């Protein structure tokens, strides 16, 4: 990836003021200081005695999703690399949660923010971005999203954040209370503080990269399972060790599943991947929401389903241990989609059989009997022991 071109307010230019950068970084750090860590929820499942299940609740960030962490990291990375200076317009290609979280931080440090997104983006999303002072730049051809974002940044003499490229390197994977360190710190007082598996989906791939790197850096025995969804290139790329796979149809599950193997996806630190059918994702989402007494988003359903498959294997093998996954966002944003039976029917999705199987597993601990595509890291490099 080419470094951003020099701008008029590059350190050599007249508009650059180091004091402004200091203030911007300080503002983001102070915001972090005022923030409580997100909760690690223990899910009580009496039928699974000996297998402890934890959910890291990323829905409670001020901007409602785990993209809050990513946006903070991307802004600090861009500020400390001299890519954002006083008044630099910031541009992102995102119709989703990333743009909402980035608008929040752009407003905090007082730089203009532009989200480039398809004209079909929902009015709620646009309102959320505008709520934080962001501008929505709507385009007709969704395929031109990235090129348009780069072009807009060039026209404005601004900075293109490019989440899919920079997510993996913007986050400090060794620590600094990244999501992995936070999980392990919060598990300290638990009966089984070193989880057997952490399960996470992939959108940019940044979160799974941070977790996988951290596990290796700290030499933990914990393994990383990535739950992919339908209409996504990640699983095939992992299975074949070939990054060139693409997928024509867009993912139905917001935040996860990508048409190409994004640069921020780091397969070498992933021990196992599962490809979860969308109907099963929706079933797990609904079931988990009922158990928690509040709604979770679609990607969380895929995470939870993959976790339950691992729990079922552990039961069958008479193993005890602990498992962790993430609540990536809440279900509020999806009332008109994943929680709307007519929306599901229109897309041919029938979660009922999956819901019955999962519900019976959680009630009795009897094996979950449906199969999904499932592959262990073909490089073998990731696993300390075969799953
Ligand atoms: C971005 C996102 C993910 C995936 O996280 P990455 O770190 O980008 O791989 C999962 N769920 C939701 C709701 C997201 O917005």
Please tell me the total number of domains. 2
Q: Element order, helices and strands? A: HEEHEHEHEHEHHEHEHEHHEHHE
The molecules bound to the chains, other than polymers, are: pyridoxal-5'-phosphate
Identify the strand order in the major beta sheet: 1-2-10-7-8-9-11
Report the β-strand fraction as a percent range.
Answer: 5-15%
Low-confidence stretches: 381-387
State the CATH architecture of the largest domain: 3-Layer(aba) Sandwich
The DSSP helix count reads 13
Could you give the count of β-strands? 11
Structural class: alpha/beta
| Mean pLDDT score | 93
Explain what the structure shows.
With 387 residues, this protein is an alpha/beta fold. The chain folds into two domains: 222 residues, Rossmann fold (3-Layer(aba) Sandwich); 103 residues, Rossmann fold. It is built from 13 helices and eleven strands. Strands 1-2-10-7-8-9-11 form a seven-stranded mixed beta sheet, with helices on both faces. The chain has a four-stranded parallel beta sheet with strand order 5-4-3-6, sandwiched between helices. Helix 1 runs antiparallel to helix 2, helix 2 packs across helix 6 and helix 6 runs parallel beside helix 8. It is globular, with a radius of gyration of 21 Å. The C terminus is likely disordered. The structure holds pyridoxal-5'-phosphate (PLP). The site of pyridoxal-5'-phosphate has 21 residues, from helix 8.
